[in-house]
Amino acid sequence: MKTLFAFFLLIFALYSAAPASAAEDTIVSGPRYRTELWNGKILTATFRAGMCFAPNGYAKGVFILRHSNGDEDVYHVKGHWQNDEFTVEHGSGHKFSGQFVSDSKIKGKVKLNKGMTLNMSGNRTHNVRLIAHDCAPLK
Protein backbone atom coordinates (compact mmCIF):
# COMPACT_ATOMS: atom_id res chain seq x y z
CA MET A 1 0.00 0.00 0.00
CA LYS A 2 2.89 2.36 0.84
CA THR A 3 4.42 1.64 -2.57
CA LEU A 4 1.18 2.53 -4.34
CA PHE A 5 0.88 5.74 -2.30
CA ALA A 6 4.49 6.67 -3.10
CA PHE A 7 3.86 6.02 -6.81
CA PHE A 8 0.83 8.34 -6.87
CA LEU A 9 2.74 10.97 -4.88
CA LEU A 10 5.58 10.81 -7.44
CA ILE A 11 3.14 11.15 -10.34
CA PHE A 12 1.46 14.12 -8.65
CA ALA A 13 4.83 15.80 -8.03
CA LEU A 14 5.91 15.32 -11.64
CA TYR A 15 2.56 16.59 -12.97
CA SER A 16 2.69 19.64 -10.68
CA ALA A 17 6.21 20.51 -11.84
CA ALA A 18 5.20 20.54 -15.52
CA PRO A 19 4.35 23.95 -17.02
CA ALA A 20 0.64 24.74 -16.86
CA SER A 21 0.42 25.44 -20.57
CA ALA A 22 2.97 24.46 -23.15
CA ALA A 23 3.51 26.81 -26.06
CA GLU A 24 1.64 25.56 -29.10
CA ASP A 25 3.35 25.14 -32.44
CA THR A 26 2.58 28.04 -34.73
CA ILE A 27 2.63 28.59 -38.47
CA VAL A 28 3.13 31.69 -40.60
CA SER A 29 3.03 32.14 -44.39
CA GLY A 30 5.54 29.97 -46.22
CA PRO A 31 5.70 27.40 -49.03
CA ARG A 32 2.90 25.20 -47.59
CA TYR A 33 0.34 27.86 -46.59
CA ARG A 34 -0.51 31.52 -46.86
CA THR A 35 -1.84 32.64 -43.46
CA GLU A 36 -4.41 35.35 -42.79
CA LEU A 37 -6.34 36.76 -39.87
CA TRP A 38 -9.87 37.98 -40.59
CA ASN A 39 -11.89 40.32 -38.34
CA GLY A 40 -15.43 41.30 -39.20
CA LYS A 41 -19.16 41.27 -38.58
CA ILE A 42 -22.12 38.97 -39.13
CA LEU A 43 -25.32 40.75 -38.06
CA THR A 44 -24.68 41.93 -34.48
CA ALA A 45 -21.87 39.42 -33.89
CA THR A 46 -18.18 39.90 -34.56
CA PHE A 47 -15.77 37.25 -35.76
CA ARG A 48 -12.08 36.48 -35.76
CA ALA A 49 -10.85 33.82 -38.12
CA GLY A 50 -7.44 32.33 -38.69
CA MET A 51 -7.20 30.99 -42.24
CA CYS A 52 -4.55 28.95 -44.06
CA PHE A 53 -4.57 28.75 -47.87
CA ALA A 54 -2.50 26.12 -49.70
CA PRO A 55 -1.21 26.68 -53.26
CA ASN A 56 -3.32 23.70 -54.47
CA GLY A 57 -6.58 25.46 -53.46
CA TYR A 58 -7.10 23.78 -50.07
CA ALA A 59 -8.29 26.09 -47.28
CA LYS A 60 -8.74 25.50 -43.56
CA GLY A 61 -9.21 27.64 -40.51
CA VAL A 62 -11.07 28.49 -37.36
CA PHE A 63 -13.89 31.06 -37.09
CA ILE A 64 -14.54 32.41 -33.60
CA LEU A 65 -17.94 34.09 -33.56
CA ARG A 66 -18.53 36.41 -30.60
CA HIS A 67 -22.18 37.26 -29.93
CA SER A 68 -23.31 40.59 -28.48
CA ASN A 69 -23.87 38.88 -25.10
CA GLY A 70 -20.19 37.77 -25.00
CA ASP A 71 -20.80 34.10 -25.78
CA GLU A 72 -18.51 32.56 -28.37
CA ASP A 73 -19.01 29.80 -30.94
CA VAL A 74 -16.00 28.16 -32.57
CA TYR A 75 -16.16 26.69 -36.07
CA HIS A 76 -13.31 24.59 -37.49
CA VAL A 77 -13.73 24.85 -41.26
CA LYS A 78 -12.25 23.25 -44.37
CA GLY A 79 -12.79 23.90 -48.04
CA HIS A 80 -11.17 25.51 -51.02
CA TRP A 81 -10.22 28.81 -52.63
CA GLN A 82 -9.60 29.78 -56.24
CA ASN A 83 -8.72 33.15 -57.73
CA ASP A 84 -10.61 35.65 -55.55
CA GLU A 85 -13.25 33.30 -54.10
CA PHE A 86 -13.40 30.97 -51.11
CA THR A 87 -15.82 28.39 -49.70
CA VAL A 88 -15.25 26.65 -46.37
CA GLU A 89 -17.65 24.48 -44.42
CA HIS A 90 -18.09 23.40 -40.81
CA GLY A 91 -19.01 19.82 -39.91
CA SER A 92 -22.50 21.02 -38.88
CA GLY A 93 -23.20 22.12 -42.46
CA HIS A 94 -22.70 25.87 -41.97
CA LYS A 95 -20.99 27.22 -45.09
CA PHE A 96 -18.88 30.38 -45.31
CA SER A 97 -18.33 31.63 -48.86
CA GLY A 98 -17.28 34.87 -50.44
CA GLN A 99 -14.72 36.96 -52.24
CA PHE A 100 -11.38 38.54 -51.50
CA VAL A 101 -12.48 42.08 -52.39
CA SER A 102 -8.99 43.52 -52.01
CA ASP A 103 -5.74 42.74 -50.18
CA SER A 104 -7.38 44.05 -47.02
CA LYS A 105 -11.11 43.15 -47.35
CA ILE A 106 -13.41 40.14 -47.64
CA LYS A 107 -17.15 39.93 -48.14
CA GLY A 108 -19.45 36.99 -48.35
CA LYS A 109 -22.28 34.98 -46.92
CA VAL A 110 -22.81 32.42 -44.21
CA LYS A 111 -25.38 29.80 -45.12
CA LEU A 112 -26.60 28.08 -41.97
CA ASN A 113 -27.40 24.37 -42.05
CA LYS A 114 -31.13 25.16 -41.73
CA GLY A 115 -31.06 27.35 -44.86
CA MET A 116 -30.88 30.93 -43.55
CA THR A 117 -28.22 33.08 -45.26
CA LEU A 118 -26.42 35.96 -43.51
CA ASN A 119 -24.07 38.59 -44.92
CA MET A 120 -20.55 38.92 -43.59
CA SER A 121 -17.76 41.42 -44.20
CA GLY A 122 -14.34 41.80 -42.75
CA ASN A 123 -10.74 42.88 -42.89
CA ARG A 124 -7.77 40.69 -43.85
CA THR A 125 -4.29 40.75 -42.35
CA HIS A 126 -1.66 38.72 -44.22
CA ASN A 127 1.26 36.62 -42.93
CA VAL A 128 -0.12 36.28 -39.40
CA ARG A 129 1.18 33.66 -36.97
CA LEU A 130 -1.54 31.04 -36.31
CA ILE A 131 -1.78 27.78 -34.36
CA ALA A 132 -0.22 25.17 -36.66
CA HIS A 133 -2.56 22.17 -36.38
CA ASP A 134 -5.82 23.97 -37.22
CA CYS A 135 -4.86 27.56 -38.22
CA ALA A 136 -6.72 29.05 -35.25
CA PRO A 137 -5.94 32.65 -34.32
CA LEU A 138 -3.63 33.12 -31.36
CA LYS A 139 -5.27 34.46 -28.21
Structure keywords:
139 residues; mainly beta; Lipocalin; two-stranded antiparallel ribbon; 1 helix; 10 strands; globular
Task: Provide structural commentary.
- This protein has 139 residues and is mainly β.
- It has one domain: Lipocalin.
- Helix content is 12%, strand content 53%.
- It has one helix and ten strands; from the N terminus they run H-E-E-E-E-E-E-E-E-E-E.
- The chain has one helix at 2-17, and strands at 26-27, 34-42, 45-53, 58-66, 72-82, 85-90, 95-102, 105-111, 117-126, 130-131.
- The strands form two sheets. It has an eight-stranded antiparallel beta barrel.
- A hairpin with a 5-residue loop joins strand 8 and strand 9.
- The longest helix is centred in the N-terminal third of the chain and has 16 residues, at 2-17.
- The protein is globular and about 35 Å long.
- The termini are far apart.
- The model is unreliable at 3-22 (pLDDT under 50).
Backbone shape:
globular
Q: Would you tell me the structural class of the helices and strands?
A: mainly beta
Q: Can you tell me the CATH topology?
A: Lipocalin
* Spatial strand arrangement across the major sheet: 2-3-4-5-6-7-8-9
Examine the secondary-structure arrangement and name the CATH architecture: Beta Barrel
- Helix percent band: 10-25%
SS element count, helices: 1
In the residues, how many domains can be counted? 1
What's the average pLDDT? 86
User: What would CATH call the class?
Assistant: Mainly Beta
Low-confidence stretches: 3-22
N-to-C series of helices and strands: HEEEEEEEEEE
What is the CA-based Rg, rounded?
20 Å
